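Hey, can you fold this one?
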Amino acid sequence: MSEALSPQTHVARGATFIFLQGFLASGLGVFYVWFLLHTKEISGQILFTELDMGLLTMLSFLLSLASTLGILALRSASVRFLAHYLAEGKRDKARSVVTRVLQVSLVTSLVIIVGLLIFAGEISHIFASPVTILILLPFCSALSIFYSQAQGFLQGLQKLRDFAAVSVLYSVIRYSIAVVLVYAGFGVLGIVISWLATLVLICLISLTVTFRSLKPSKHAHDLRPLLVFSFPIYVSALLTFVVGWVDQIFIFPFLGLEALGVYNLAVRASMVPNLVSVAIATSLFPKLTELHSRFGVGSLRDAFKSSTRYAALLGFPISLLVAVLAYPIIVLFATVRFIDAVGPLTVMCIASLPTILGSTIYPTFYTLKRTKLASSI
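Sure. Predicted structure:
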């Protein structure tokens, strides 16, 4: 039945799963932030302040940095090589990819754990946060690497429904634990505990789903082609990370954690319009790889056209709508304490418009192994 579907249908169906997952996760995230910022109205006392939001932002920065460094962009390699080998019927080769990626992830995770633990005291002093938080953070970072790789496996297997379900479950569990612990008086520590507990559970679930379809091989895939494919993407990911965080990193030393907390709220809200581009990129990459492996370059044309149309019709209106309604969105969900986030939110939404169409370009270049060109763009 799957093979009877057109490329456009495959992409649209996969993108729909990911879009719905992103929509649900974002909706849960809105309620999560609302509960954090309305503790006074609910419990009678302020349990989460602008300062806490700023500290949480810096912890998220460290978590994202460690994950970006540790993944080595092998998630993209997993998607490409798994889809390619499975399209050619080479299951043993696909299994060897899973083995090699997990081996490399184990090594990078251990390096990150040791590195963060060594500097835990210094980082705790800079952020004025409890040392306990910085002791838990390295383990969250290591688990986030395995979670990302497992999601790459599911994407390469084109199990986008499972991919979406696991992502929604991750959001539900993490936000629920975090809210309970914050209202119990744990503050930011409670949120970090929710990261750790949820990542342990979700990693087990994601890898279990993967292994049911594709068990690891006793023989690992040659690392060189994986790194050759992923290295340009890795460099691009690092540059993208720097660009995405540079403004927030400069705010911290000059304006402090409170101003950073306000600004980060705008950043979070501006991510909502990106749901369309993320959904398309996630579903398009493995399907394009399969089509290219089976039918050649000409088969990519129809899928690319339909995905570009999908991105323009949905992504642009959502971005503009959030930009126009920035003021009531911030006041309604974050209270007037965060009113300064309105301006940054409007600018970010408008600036994100070109990236929506870009979501259809990168998967096409990755499929053709033109990773250097994609990274240059």
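The chain has a mean pLDDT of 82. Let me know if you want another pass with a different chain boundary.
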